[in-house]
Amino acid sequence: MTPRTVLVTGGNRGIGRAIALELAAAGHRVAITSRNGSGPEGVLAVQADVTDAASLDAAFTVVETELGPVEVVVANAGITKDTLLLRMTEADFDDVVATNLGGSFRVVKRASKGMLKARFGRVILISSVVGMLGSAGQVNYASSKSALIGFARSLTRELGGRGITANVVAPGFIESDMTAELPEAQQKDYLGRIPVGRFGSGDDVAKTVLWLASDDAAYISGAVIPVDGGLGMGH
């Protein structure tokens, strides 16, 4: 494995935190962004809001100074504002798209400057099984997550000849505080849809990201990799 400088957005909790810790444990130089500037031990935490290009630029400057040019970017930061379509406000829709899709655009655009200069880069976009399967009450979220596929494939065609790959990881039901609080009957219903018979973990997603960031995945680009226990059957 070649140690790389990695930036994970939204790396202070959940899947992003698991990704950051896995990459750091493998020997990469890892930085994370969070809105409050906090993060797990062993990584560089910088404050940034992915809806604000200026704050991202400032965060990149800190990371580049401390760890070197960003070679791997993991666009993970995201939000939900779930409600049925007829109850969904324009702000509900726009805010989710601005964070999940717009945030990915801003961070990848900033990262690509250094990647083009180095003629090397790994772009990894964290989507969701919902982006392909759909989900009632998540028109905004599903739209933002499915759009990442077109983003990665367009980026592959645009920058693939410069040593830069772009791939999408689509997690399914992942163990979290939220899933733990679901009623037992609802948990059983969700589990019944998953062929492997369990929820995924943040580590399941993190190990997939680790592989995509590695030298072994150099010929993989424009791919959508489901980490969902067979729920979407590859979509």
TrEMBL record:
Chain ranges of the Ketoreductase domain: 4-177
Family per similarity comment: Belongs to the short-chain dehydrogenases/reductases (SDR) family.
PANTHER family: 3-OXOACYL-(ACYL-CARRIER-PROTEIN) REDUCTASE, 3-OXOACYL-[ACYL-CARRIER-PROTEIN] REDUCTASE FABG
Protein name: Beta-ketoacyl-ACP reductase
Species name: Amnibacterium soli
